[in-house]
Design goal:
The protein is α/β, with parallel strands linked by helices. The chain contains nine helices and 15 strands. Strands 1-2-6-3-7-14 form a six-stranded mixed β-sheet. Bound molecules: zinc ion.
Length: 388
């Protein structure tokens, strides 16, 4: 097989062309990446989802030894439906120093650069490997990465550092909040509202749980920032309800109410502990409504769980990215990434990638050409570093 010698920009064109929106299969993209890597003699490993419609892919480039660097990105993008795009979202259009297209910023730009670094690493004869990790379903709760990471731990020599290339304007991000979310179903009991004391109103019951979020938010906001929490905006753990649905008529106690409940947890606090407090509160209210009607219930289904990224003290990934970017500061962000999931498996991990997170998920999403070029410089310095 002839090596596919493509520039990072040409690879980006290919990747954006795959409509790998989270709710559809990403296998055509993964096939292409596998073919690209194979053309350079690099073996890929796939980790499929339960129904086999999606796969994560990882690979080791260079010698099979410990101490390498993982470049991690996700293959999925958010939908374009309902967004007003000036150009075809699945074709990269370069204009005014910007690369327009769905996923250019979040985060096929970084994945393209990582893949373009593969032949570079091989030509440089790296002494420590470059490892590539491409997940799926990042945009729908970061559910694709954990099985991939578990498989990487078993299959590849242990890497010394992980760089998750979510858009950070190539600045070093070494901390982010964790998240834990639930779909909540309150099952009430329908009666005429004139006799509401004999029924259970699912909406009014849900309101109690939702108001608990308000109470938690106020309590947390009133507390001083912890050592790990300072730097975050806001510095406290927050609870949020963004969607609710319920009831059938003005004069009937609502039989059903559904809402989504989520925490954003500052590093140093336990996502599980917050989830447990919520479960305990739900159980307490459930006992009260079941005393009125035994059929009533509150059911919680986990929708997402993303561990936070705890800033390391002089971690290997920090050192590496400082060396390669010259960025001596560090930042923390309030959005979740797969970095916390790598850290949970014992990897030293930071976030650093091209583009502005403000562009992610937007209509007319773009990546500045200058950011793309800066990130390519990063890849070249990384390969040099691995060859030393
Ligand atoms: Zn992303």
């Amino acid at each position: 097989m002839h090596p596919m010698n493509l520039s990072a920009r040409e690879i980006l064109d290919q990747l954006v062309g795959f409509r790998s929106v989270s709710h559809v299969s990403n296998l055509d993209l993964i096939d292409w990446v596998e073919g690209y890597l194979a053309s350079h003699g690099v073996k890929s490993y796939r980790v499929y989802n339960a129904d086999g419609t999606k796969a994560a892919l990882f690979a080791n480039v260079g010698p099979e030894v410990e101490g390498g660097v993982i470049l991690s990105g996700h293959s999925d993008v958010v939908p374009v439906e309902g967004q007003d795009w000036a150009t075809d979202p699945f074709t990269v259009v370069e204009r005014d120093g910007r690369l327009y297209g769905r996923g250019t910023c979040d985060m096929k730009g970084f994945v393209a650069l990582a893949l373009a670094a593969v032949p570079l690493a091989l030509a440089a004869g790296v002494k420590r490997p470059l490892q590539i990790a491409i997940s799926y379903d990042e945009e729908v709760g970061c559910t694709g990465a954990p099985p991939m990471i578990a498989q990487m731990v078993k299959t590849l020599p242990r890497a010394a550092a992980v760089v998750v290339g979510e858009p950070s304007m190539m600045r070093l991000v070494n901390g982010h909040k964790g998240g834990h979310g639930f779909a909540v179903h309150v099952q009430g009991f329908e009666v005429h509202s004139s006799l509401q004391h004999t029924g259970v109103n699912a909406i009014m019951t849900a309101a109690r749980l939702i108001d608990w979020a308000n109470i938690i938010n106020a309590e947390n906001a009133a507390k001083p920032a912890t050592a790990l929490g300072q730097g975050f905006v806001p510095h406290w753990t927050t609870a949020h309800v963004g969607k609710i649905q319920g009831g059938t008529a003005e004069n009937i106690t609502a039989k059903d109410c559904h809402f989504g409940f989520g925490f954003r947890v500052v590093p140093g606090e336990s996502e599980e502990a917050w989830a447990q407090r919520f479960k305990d509160k739900a159980a307490e209210i459930e006992a009260e409504i079941q005393a009125i009607r035994p059929e009533a219930a509150i059911t919680l289904t986990q929708t997402f769980y993303v561990p936070g990224l705890v800033p390391e003290q002089n971690g290997a990934a920090d050192h590496l990215v400082r060396r390669l970017t010259g960025d001596n500061g560090s930042e923390v962000v309030s959005y979740g990434t797969e970095a916390g999931q790598f850290q949970a498996e014992g990897y030293s991990c930071v976030v650093c990638g091209p583009g502005d997170i403000a562009q992610a998920h937007q209509p007319n999403e773009y990546l500045e050409v200058a950011q793309f070029n800066e990130a390519w410089g990063f890849m070249q310095r990384l390969v040099k570093d691995l060859a030393e």
